Amino acid sequence: MLGAISCQKKEDGPVKKITYKGPTVETSNVLTLISDSARLQIRLKAPLEQTFESGDQIYPNGMNVLFYSKDGTRVDNTLQGKYGKFEKAKNLYTVRGDVQVGNKEKQQKMYTEEMFYDKQKNLVYTDSATFAKVVTPTDSLTGYGLTYNMVTGIYRFHRPTGVFSAQLPSGK
Question: What is the spatial distance between Cα 131 and Cα 119, in angstroms, rounded to a whole number?
Answer without folding.
Answer: 22
